[in-house]
Amino acid sequence: MFGIGFPELVVIFIVALIVLGPERLPQVARQMARWVNEVRKAADELKKELGVEEIAREKDEIEKVRQELLNKVYNPLPEENSQNSSQEEQAEKEKAPLSHERKA
């Protein structure tokens, strides 16, 4: 929580004990706990209202579709078809010199 470790909590407690005194410290601690709980409840309600989890799921789905589209754009042919097309290109290249030889 907030990146505060145990040593920092001990220092905060000692400072609070010195500043507030032993009589008021329990009261202030209870009040702080109530405030923290209220803030947590408000944050949870806000998350539900805004649909944060739903938005995160939709974002993941959109990212998957984006990746699929990028794969289709950059790799439009499956490997089998690309091998066939490369064989066809090679066959055309072999035919091309023959047509030049006939003209000469």
Spans of at least 5 consecutive residues with low confidence? none
Number of domains: 1
- Amount of beta strand: under 5%
Specify the helix fraction band: over 70%
Largest sheet: none
Alpha plus pi helix count = 3
Mean pLDDT: 80
For the record, give the distance between the C-alpha atoms at the N and C termini, rounded to a whole number. Answer: 84 Å
Structural class: mainly alpha
**What is the tally of beta strands?**
0
Cα-based radius of gyration, to the nearest Å: 35 Å
Shape: elongated
Task: Give helix and strand order, one letter per element, not per position.
Answer: HHH
Notes on the structure:
The chain is mainly α. It has one domain. It has 3 helices and no strands. The longest helix has 45 residues. It is elongated. The mean pLDDT is 80.
Brief overview:
By secondary structure, this protein is mostly helical. It has helices at 6-50, 52-74, 79-103.
Topology of this protein?
Blueprint: H1 6-50, H2 52-74, H3 79-103
Which characteristics define this entry?
about 100 residues; mainly alpha; about 0% strand; 3 helices
